[in-house]
Write a structure and sequence with these properties.
The structure is a homotrimer. Chain A has helices at residues 3-10, 45-50, 75-86, 288-299, 301-315, 320-324; strands spanning 13-15, 24-25, 35-38, 55-59, 69-72, 102-103, 108-109, 114-115, 120-121, 126-127, 132-133, 138-139, 144-145, 150-151, 156-159, 164-167, 170-173, 180-182, 187-188, 193-195, 202-204, 209-210, 215-216, 221-222, 227-228, 233-234, 239-240, 245-246, 251-252, 257-258, 263-264, 269-270, 279-281, 286-287. By secondary structure, the first copy, chain A, is of the alpha/beta class. Among the domains of chain A are: 3-86, MurE/MurF, N-terminal domain (Udp-n-acetylmuramoylalanyl-d-glutamate--2,6- Diaminopimelate Ligase, Chain: A, domain 1), CATH 3.40.1390.10; 155-289, UDP N-Acetylglucosamine Acyltransferase, domain 1 (3 Solenoid), CATH 2.160.10.10. In chain A, the strands form five sheets. The first copy, chain A, has a ten-stranded mixed beta sheet, covered by helices on one side. In chain A, strands 6-9-12-15-20-23-26-29-32 form a nine-stranded parallel beta sheet, with no helix packed on it. In chain A, strands 7-10-13-18-21-24-27-30 form an eight-stranded parallel beta sheet, with no helix packed on it. The first copy, chain A, is flat, with a radius of gyration of 27 Å. Chains in contact: A-B, A-C, B-C.
Chain lengths: 325, 325, 325
């Protein structure tokens, strides 16, 4: 494909020769003739200077004496479009429901949905159209997936919420009568666990993306449009607003409300409601500007202790022993 | 079912009309005529005031001018009983061992145990009666499950413990000759990993409940009667006593002893033995009353630094420059 | 097997009667006649004093009046060798590819590799020889495993990296065109998730061992020779050097470099590059000697606040009210 065609497709400004033929995309260090590359991060400027790529997608403002550039206002999106154009999404080895998937006869599966072997879809579950369920994903009974939902391998949707009533030393299991309802265009990474609610449904709003090993508790409501990085744990009955971003290993306790557009930095431990658009970090999670000062002071604590010791020494009325030192 | 019958069954005091017919249970906000609801948490008093439920299960002391109440000393247990009465536990789409489960011919399976498709039960494993093994659960060779054990989808029991002897730059695998032994009435959530011991068995005591994505290391002993929330990691050879409660993402290092009845708050990092009945939190885990003071001081660290600075400034002998300020 | 033969095989010094017959290995507390045991940790000296084992493998320097000893410079390695000698590694219930494994016809599988039921191996994946893929492990398309690789149950190799370009409120999926390439002698525990790269491959170097529930992000490079304990999360594009050791629940953010031979203590939150051979701990991760002082000061914060309060009180000019106290 000609570079000029790619530039037109991804809506980028072409600076250089548009007739160059491009066959694939590669990282700056690996790219060679016939390959397009991408400057993703200021950390990689050195690789940019020395790349052998035929052309490079760059953000506005980046220049080069020697390289052909595709300059874009939203260079990451331009890169994504080029990836789809040149590499495309995965082609599945089969269409429809693989004979070794285990789909209950009372479940319904939408048109054009691909179900890999080892997948389980329980009674009365409803799966939309154009979905992909990767190998060994498990959808418990009654759960509902919208259209174009992608569930990666080993992920479990609709497992019983962790609900017990402890009475006379016995933990009595509470039937979990809700389901999990997943909106359109949701993608969930590998080996996640999304629990069903006891009374209300657990809801993952449209367009939300959840990375691997995430845990969503029973009766939580997430999204739409959230981005949730790996190993996050969200406890039961918490409500996460629209377009919330979470870094890896974040924990949120139960019965909280996380406002729309909030950002929770990686490893945050969230134990209170979070305001819309707030950015928090730390354990416990604090507004980010305050948290930064807290963590700077934290890492200098031994010095602070020494300073207090010095103040104490100076404040003491001189004793005989001290006089002699 | 008549409300009076439900009240009798769950041993609750009926305040209002016992003749009302109830068909199901719903959350306060969603409940309507013919539905029973439940006040679980003081956070939901507003929903309680406005609910359209036919009746509400409440703890002792709660009153209402307008609602029919089922009042109980242990209202959460009363709710659990009502859920079992009205909704019941899951009805499985098949009985016994699904033809697509992979059960080794040398394994033994108790009566009335349900094994879903994709489950693997290895050589010489022994599964008790009335168990449920959900899709794609994996039981390695020699492991033993008691009666009424529930293993959710994707959970792996008896994987090799993480044991290597490093010699001359090579990590040599140590055969893990122990098994995992699970007591009666244990329930383990989805995608957990319970490692077998090298020499001794890993033991999960009767009635213990473990939420999703938990990791139990080789040779650990847990319970009986523990409640372990999601994403907990317990390292090898640690002994957890009876009726210990752990919040989500707790970590416990190896070779420790956690006393009976202890409570480990979510995200605690436990690096020392814990006394029976102690409640700890934090990283590192500290007794909770102390930890609360530590974390309050922590979140005010920038202010403390400023106070120390001020003390230092005041303690300084006045210099010419300072005099002029 | 005679003790003298075992001593010769594991290259240990025999102190006592070499003619004793040994049939197996057991922990100090459980061991009886005919059993060899092992002193692994100074914590277990009491069990060592009272063991009924026929003989005990011990490090240099350990003596006993009553026990037959196998003394070794590297006693843990000696124990590992004895375990292999007396117990051996798992014998698999079948050879080759189980008929209920799902191996794409375009995948290649090396000689003598054991593939359990429920395993999925995608298009064009290449698996080396003498590998073991335990039940329900999933290898996505194009991934490459070396020889003698062990993948435990439920682990997912090659899931799409968490890559989206957000444009006009929509998270657009970026095709992940790289693969996961795993070196020889790697072992990965149960229910891990190793994501494929977008442009470059995710690489797990030879001899690296990863415990259960670990998450490796897209485009990361690990090892060779690393030891990574359970529930670790390593974000995309991070490079981990040779022989790096990580405790449980460590988190590393993206685009970092962890030097050869570094040690990251359990629960460390690593947000900067780490020097070769450095040992770090804490959140944020700090050099261990500094971190220890920080955490000691942290756990004494309430006391420090009191000391500052006292200094402030003493520094105040005496007021009328104070005079009267």
């Amino acid at each position: 494909m000609k570079l000029s065609e790619i530039a037109a497709h991804i809506n980028a400004e072409l600076i250089g020769d548009g007739a160059t033929e491009i066959h694939s995309i590669a990282a700056l260090e690996q790219a060679g003739p016939g390959q397009l590359s991408f400057l993703s991060n200021a950390k990689y400027l050195q690789e940019f200077e020395s790349t052998r790529a035929a052309a490079v997608i760059v953000p506005k403002g980046v220049e080069s004496d020697r390289l052909t550039l595709l300059r874009s206002k939203d260079s990451y999106y331009a890169f994504a479009q080029a990836m789809v154009l040149l590499h495309g999404h995965r082609r599945h080895p089969h269409v429809g429901i693989h004979p070794r998937a285990n789909v209950d006869p009372t479940a319904t599966i939408g048109e054009n949905t691909v179900i890999y072997p080892g997948v389980f879809v329980g009674p009365r579950a409803r799966i939309g159209r154009d979905c992909i369920l990767y190998p060994n994903a498990v959808i418990y009974d009654e759960c509902v997936l919208g259209d174009r939902v992608i569930i990666h391998a080993g992920t479990v949707i609709g497992v019983d919420g962790f609900g017990y009533a402890t009475h006379a030393g016995v933990h009595h299991k509470i039937p979990q009568a809700g389901n999990v309802t997943i909106g359109d265009d949701v993608e969930i990474g590998a080996n996640c666990t999304i629990a069903r609610g006891a009374l209300v449904n657990t809801v993952i709003g449209a367009g939300t993306k959840i990375d691997g090993l995430g845990m969503i508790g029973h009766g939580a409501t997430i999204g739409p449009g959230c981005m949730i990085v790996a190993q996050v744990g969200i406890a039961g009955s918490t409500t996460v607003g629209k377009y919330v971003t979470m870094g890896g290993q974040v924990a949120i306790t139960g019965h909280l409300t996380i406002g729309d557009g909030a950002t929770l930095a990686g490893r945050s431990a969230v134990m209170t409601d979070i305001e819309p658009k707030a950015t928090v970090m730390g354990m416990p999670a604090m507004p980010v500007s305050h948290a930064r000062r807290v963590y700077v002071a934290f890492s200098r604590l031994p010095e602070l202790v020494d300073r207090v010791k010095r103040l104490e020494r100076n404040a003491e009325p001189p004793s005989d022993g001290d006089d002699k030192d």
